[in-house]
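tool_call predict_complex ligand=MV4
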Amino acid sequence: MTLQKVLIANRGEIAVRIARACRELGIRSVAVYSEADQGAPHVVASDEAVLIGPARASESYLDVDRLLNACSAVGADAVHPGYGFLAENAEFAHGVEQAGLTFIGPPAAAIAEMGDKTVARRRMTDAGVPVVPGSTEPLATGALALEAAELAGFPVLLKAAAGGGGKGMRIVDRAEELERAFDAASREATQAFGDGRVYVERFLQDPRHIEVQILADGHGTVLHLGERECSIQRRHQKLVEEAPAPNLDDDVRSRLGDVACAAARAVDYVGAGTVEFLLEDGEFYFLEMNTRIQVEHPVTELVTGVDIVQWQLRIAGGEKLELPESVAVPDGHAIECRISGEDPYAGFLPSTGTIRELEVPGGPGVRWDGGIAPGTEVGLEYDPLLGKLIVHGKTRLAAIARMRRALDELALHGVRTTIPFHRAVMDEPDFRAGRVSVRYVERHPQLTDGLAGWSPDAALAAASILEHRFRDTASPGAVRPGRTQHTERSAWQRRFEADE
Ligand code: MV4
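tool_result ok
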């Protein structure tokens, strides 16, 4: 039962990525788009397109009924949710299945189990997967929370059972503060998720964030594709990811892979998924499982040679998962920079405008997964991710040099972007040495200071020069690397001219 026609319930770069995979497999693809996305790259990349509603996501990309109607209008037999929007919504997966269509992702039950972080912790504990010390049940009262916190050991983190991705967390340093914080966390969780259940974990102070890519088919095979290092982030938005993780013990690497497969098996997982871990002092702990394709999947693709999105489609079509032995050992090193329409010198404030110019880098070992084109309006209604620059190199340092070169070639004008931040990271000694943790960005303020450290006069002078040269990214890191422009005649030119 191979898939015939896939409706892509998403937009931007991931919708383009899915359309490409469909095309390569001979599966028809159908884009959906909002009124803000007429003629968008994901529409152009697909075989058919359906207008589903206004710009507002709740009335288009998040509207289950409109999406299911689009499926029946075009005769789609499957839905790929991408990431974000409805990708981890168990009711949507269920609705797709109820409509007699294939959801390209895990069974709705696996989404629901991993979506409740306390259920996930119980499943993992039962499967022998190490979790951060703490409670495996939601805490009914502040007094019970205090008991659990004393057991876990202070400082602790209060987390929402329905949370994930960093929303609704609260650090508590001392027992005296716990009950108040518990009430506040519970109230916040109710507001954010309509579910006030809270649990407690020991707070790890300076961990690395490492995740393992999983593929599982519907015939009992579960494999991992190695890990990614994803610590470089700000406010839970990743900025740079790489594979394999630098400075990782071979024994830890191998145990991470085994444990991630056990995690997937514990919830009868099918499809592509990611098991997230925190790593501190040589120990690792299960954090959560993402039951979707992730933004950073390309770094794994580049070091394993496996097309993960194609495999999502093939697994959904009932195929058996078969990968070459060679995936067990990563080939070289891959790095991804998320290029988003945010100003790194203004607290990563979203920047809006129209893409005026776009020149994407090429050459050996460079990949651009983009969702924009000249003329694209970048507004505030959707995620600011514009595209991803991904490179591969034989070694980590070769990949860093390649990324630096590719960032210099990338010309993207019209909105402020994270490009100058990424350039600075590639040059920064701790990054170059693989010394990273989730606190990397906060520990390297020079990467986000812009003109802040400059005297007012110097800043004004620099800003006005840059404003002239490069209108939309006035910041010291933003000057495009100059070729040496010889405006004066060189000695040989003068001699040459004299001869004529
Ligand atoms: C933690 C933690 C420290 N200790 N849990 C943030 C997002 C959510 N997925 C879980 N997160 C964290 N959980 C314990 N017990 C630190 C973080 C955390 C983090 C995790 C992954 C990637 C980036 C992060 C940035 C800040 C905090």
